[in-house]
Amino acid sequence: MAKYSIKDLEHLSGIKAHTLRIWEQRYSLINPKRTDTNIRYYDQEDLKLVLNVSLLKENGYKISKIADMSREEMSEAVLMVTEKTTSHADQIYALTLSMIDLDEQRFEKIISSNTLKHGFERTMLNIIYPFLSKIGIMWMTDSINPAQEHFISHLIRQKLIVAIDGQYPSVDVNAKKYMMFLPEKELHELSLLFANFLVRARDCKSIYLGQDMPFHDLHVAHELYKPDYLLTIITSRDANISPQDYVNNLSERFPETTILVSGGQIIGQDLDLNDNIVQIANPNHLISFIEENVSQPVGK
Questions:
Q1: Contact at 8 Å (CB) between 101 and 113?
Q2: pLDDT, tens only, 234-268
Q3: Cβ neighbours of residue 70 under 8 Å, at least 6 residues apart?
Q4: Helix, strand or coil for residue 26?
């Protein structure tokens, strides 16, 4: 089971460690455990409790009232809040709780209600994508276990595939053509799937090659499809090749193609990029690029 320091709770909930200590002393709201060497720590139930408290407090509940609630009463209050609120932050908190509890029904309710209100794209941009960033932080701090991460990633992947399946392919013979892939050993597919959705939603053509694409096979596919743009996302570090070398290889192999690159191994890494390489910082940046280049010649 995951163990958290009070700084971990602060980082994940947004509640200052000093405030959490006051709540411990004044309300016995959370009670730290101790290791064999007498080091204080908190468990996953404590994290869930703090997330619930944070959500209720942000929606006007007084901490004294929250402290008097049973766990069941608190859970019911949280469900009521998340069903009524339109706050993106509250919806992200609710998704976090559904992940911690492996609660598919709550996940479905959150995504369905937001999709009906705002559409799938806005739900992805305003709720799911920030939530994925939060998962990344929780993963790096060992705040979730692989089962929880796989559970929620699988549900989001299902939603993306259904949304893409519901799109009509462009019939415009002059539409820009995108080829999307992940490098060899790269398996983090959600951002690439969303990129595919965004491209197709703007009446561009796309071919999706998916995960773990060998460089030689990419070259063959490029010769067959002749895309205007290649799009890839590099999230994981490959011990056999640096991101800089991989991007250089792409640039040299496909010198006449504009190559869009993104991911944690690219953005903010101070790479030296050739002229046909474009960094895409986030989905909104990709949307701007697609829309600006829908009817323009490549490279203009």
A1: no
A2: 988 877 888 999 999 999 999 999 999 998 888 88
A3: none
A4: helix
Provide CB contacts within 8 A for 270, sequence distance 6+: none
The answer to whether residue 169 is domain-embedded is no
- Its domain, for residue 100, covers 44-164
160 and 187 fall within a common domain: no
Total Cβ atoms within 10 A of residue 261: 23
Q: What percent of the chain has pLDDT over 90?
A: 42
Cα–Cα dist 237/74, whole Å: 41
Domain count, the chain: 2
Q: Is residue 93 part of a domain?
A: yes
Question: What are the tens digits of pLDDT across the range 62-110?
Answer: 888 888 888 888 878 877 777 666 678 888 888 888 888 899 998 998 8
Contact 228, 236 (CB under 8 A): no
**CA torsion through residues 275, 281, 286, 287, sign:** negative
Could you give the strand order of the β-sheet that contains 177-183, starting from the edge strand earlier in sequence? 205-213, 177-183, 229-233, 258-262, 277-279
